């Protein structure tokens, strides 16, 4: 890991860069696949499944028989763990429900807001080197709670044409309505335009690599909403002398093993902690089955020493991490002062892995600095806030003159007339 001591603020933007390709590097590939899927539908889906995943499928839709087989293949122990996680995720997201808001803004003028579910949503579940069945929980549970009518899921199959059994088990458990063996850019394009087999959706959710992230941004340019730009995983830990170096190192590695384009950062005001954590990282790295992947991510990562907590907090807010762990005697200072982070984990006994799986919060979070303007997935992500108003005869008399005056000032005579007729 690269060690950086007392970086000056003018260098922070360089320090905060992620190890990913730029939009322009990937744009042409995404554009080409989107165009082909739009024009050729399932034929293009099959072409790119063969090209990228090395698989030829006669039918990309998962059958009920495949789901039943998958359910039998998941161990009782894993099913029990999934049920615990599902219960906690349901509790946390159900608590986010809000009541209808009704306000009489003027006598005779009643306005209210109600939330209605997005009818058709698409969930993208990464497969590849780590089949993320936990992401199915994070997306399908709030989608079901929100009342989404159609919950479409795409996930890449292996070379034998199978989706991971745990992914299928959780999808069935959480009420996913249709599942397709499609991954990558072509999956996002399929849900954007619809094909002969894959339905078009209104909003696409889910993390992925940088190709999937940019594909989602293309989807948003083609009339389909997205949850957020959620790309390669990242974690920033602030640790002082009260932290436990082995714990900190384990957290850094837990995100580094996600993928070669992941990034982890330690910020500290204690040089001994910096050195101890580095030593622990390399010690634990040797024991990881995904050592090769984690090693590449570690090479893209940083150990940063700064003199004061104030400087540390400013740097962390500039970075805007997806995940932020605070291990400090002054944890309240960081908890109160953090402005830009997807999800915050507080104390030595709060590993980031808890949020990834079973504490109840959602692990689909903004990366690449997007936490400065985006929230992580939550119940509202699957809902639309709709406003209503009803005006009585007395109400239009009370606000009509103001409407006429404003419409006339903007030169919109028809707007004024719509009120004038009613006032008469």
UniProtKB/TrEMBL annotation:
Name of the protein in question: Histidinol dehydrogenase
Organism: Flavobacterium helocola
Catalyses which reaction(s): L-histidinol + 2 NAD(+) + H2O = L-histidine + 2 NADH + 3 H(+)
Residues at the catalytic site: 322 (proton acceptor), 323 (proton acceptor)
Cofactor, how bound (note): Binds 1 zinc ion per subunit.
Keyword Oxidoreductase tagged: yes
Function: Catalyzes the sequential NAD-dependent oxidations of L-histidinol to L-histidinaldehyde and then to L-histidine.
Similarity-based family: Belongs to the histidinol dehydrogenase family.
